[in-house]
Amino acid sequence: MKNVNEQKKYNHLLLDNKVCVIVGGGSLRSIGYATAELFAAHGAKLVLLDLVMNEEKAKEATNAIASQIGYTPEIICIPCDIRNTSDCEKAIAEAVAHFGTIDCLVNCAGIVKSEGMLSITEEAYDLIMDVNLKGTFNICQSALKIFAEKQAGVIVNLSSLSAQRGGGLVGGTHYAASKGGVISLTKAIAREFAPKNIRANVICPAMIETSMLDGLSEQQLKDVVSGIPLQRVGKTVEVAGACLFLASDLSGFTTGATIDVNGGIHIH
């Protein structure tokens, strides 16, 4: 039988009083929102960033989280275009000014477009790359300035199964390439900043119940599901669970890792 001290060791919130910046939480159907809700349930203080964030969306997210966890979390919501370095700098500065520091960055922001290689215009290519890869770089760089100074911090970036298998599901070659860059970027951050006690890991989801599936017909979705060993698409909270693991001390010796959340559709 465990003694009282041993029992207490396991009876704590995984992110108690941690300040977590989550990018891409403007929609209640998003992985970013699901991550914010789960983190709040584990005691985190939240900073929600999104290009479309406004007073209405901030209130919607805050109320939704409060209704799920039973109280209103400490939360600030900031509009931020991660394509813009000054936006990222200002958002992180505002978070630090409000909470005193930041402890974790989870970047769920991303856009997708499905089109053949020969149909991709320069404008479409630049937009995908600017949001998915450059935007990830920008917000990571801004957060890392704080993490490097305090000699501690955690980064979780979202990539995609498309980066691992060369597309083939949702998203064109530019999308797959941008998400492949996110994997490499995260590994490089992990290697460079590990001596400063900063960890960085990446998650590669497959088909998840978000607005990204809205463009698929019922038959297309059925065809996709038939190829998934678990025979269903994933839930946003299941990706959020992987984010929670990587953000918490449970993964304290994990950095530079790629975590698959794909129902077994890609096993390697």
TrEMBL record:
InterPro entries: KR_dom, NAD(P)-bd_dom_sf, Sc_DH/Rdtase_CS, SDR_fam
Single GO biological process annotation from the record: fatty acid elongation
A single MF term (Gene Ontology): oxidoreductase activity, acting on the CH-OH group of donors, NAD or NADP as acceptor
Residues annotated as domain Ketoreductase: 18-210
Protein family (similarity comment): Belongs to the short-chain dehydrogenases/reductases (SDR) family.
PANTHER family noted in UniProt: BLL7886 PROTEIN, SHORT-CHAIN DEHYDROGENASES/REDUCTASES FAMILY MEMBER
Protein name (Swiss-Prot/TrEMBL): SDR family oxidoreductase
UniProt organism field: Flavobacterium restrictum
Taxon lineage: Bacteria, Pseudomonadati, Bacteroidota, Flavobacteriia, Flavobacteriales
